[in-house]
Write a structure and sequence with these properties.
The protein has a single domain (2-247), classed as Protocatechuate 4,5-dioxygenase, Chain B (3-Layer(aba) Sandwich), CATH 3.40.830. Helix 2 (79-89) crosses helix 4 (132-149), helix 4 packs parallel to helix 7 (213-222) and helix 6 packs antiparallel against helix 7. By secondary structure, the protein is of the alpha/beta class. The protein is built from seven helices and ten strands. The radius of gyration is 16 Å and the shape is globular. An eight-stranded mixed β-sheet has the order 6-3-7-2-8-1-10-9, with helices on both faces. The chain has a two-stranded antiparallel sheet with strand order 4-5. The longest helix has 18 residues, at 132-149.
Length: 248
């Protein structure tokens, strides 16, 4: 059964190998390190940056796609859970390495040595992105599959997601009117009841080009009514980074 929910960022600049000066983003890095998964047997990490919607066959990734060698994330994979989830979801397995939406949180130490099942939802931002409706449809069916395939395992489900990308002049979109307000509403919703996030997804996507629309939608469907263990939010580079966790 699902015993733990969480959300984490996946920005490369949070890694010491990428940004040796770690003053910016210090609070979110510390919050990721303090997430407690001791009640879980396996961690399912849901990314918005894979090649297609599906389940990764192995939990190995790197930053070579960004031209960075020697930085690799390797975890054990729960092969049985991966196959069961792929069958329940009706999506083909993904044979390629983990995308950075999963690799970066693992490089930040997410979940310690827990086995990992990596999941990709359709990417909705950047060139060639899928439609928001495709991502939300996939998120909904993923949430249903997760709720029915845990068997005797204790699952932690982690949304790898960023909020708005237009919060200051340093942001990828520079400063966008309304982005700060929708991020504030998102943080409040996550603290009060993750189910409230579903009413914000469209605005997050349209106003702030939030890459995490799909994972956040799945989180909202899975953890409505769960108890918040606290939310940490920072936007050091003009992008909203969120760390939080929920328990039954």
């Amino acid at each position: 059964m699902i015993v733990h929910g969480a959300v984490v960022p996946h920005a490369l600049v949070l890694l010491e190998d990428i940004q040796p000066s770690l003053d910016e983003g210090r609070r979110v890095r510390k919050a990721v390190d303090e997430l407690d998964f001791t009640n879980a047997d396996v961690m399912v990490v849901v990314s918005p940056h894979g090649p297609a919607a599906g389940i990764y066959e192995r939990s190995e990734g790197s930053l070579r796609g960004f031209g960075i060698d020697g930085v690799e994330a390797v975890r054990d994979t729960d092969v049985d859970l991966s196959r069961c989830l792929a069958n329940a979801w009706g999506r083909a397995p993904i044979g390629s390495p983990l995308d950075f939406g999963i690799a970066v949180p693992l490089l930040l130490g997410l979940g310690g040595d827990l086995p990992v099942v990596g999941v990709s939802l359709p990417q909705t931002t950047g060139p060639g992105g899928s439609s928001l409706s495709d991502a939300l449809d996939a998120a909904g069916t993923l949430a249903e599959a997760l709720a029915t395939t845990a068997d005797g395992r204790a699952l932690a489900v982690v949304a790898s997601a960023h909020a708005s990308a237009g919060l200051s002049a340093r942001a990828p979109l520079t400063e966008v009117s309304g982005a700060t307000e929708v991020d504030s509403e998102l943080v409040a919703a996550l603290e009060e009841d993750p189910a409230r996030v579903e009413g914000l997804i469209e605005r997050l996507h349209e106003i702030g080009q939030a890459c995490g629309a799909g994972p956040l939608a799945a989180l909202g469907q899975l953890f409505g009514g769960w108890r918040s263990g606290g939310i940490t939010y920072e936007a050091p580079y003009g992008v909203g980074y969120i760390v939080g966790q929920w328990l039954p």
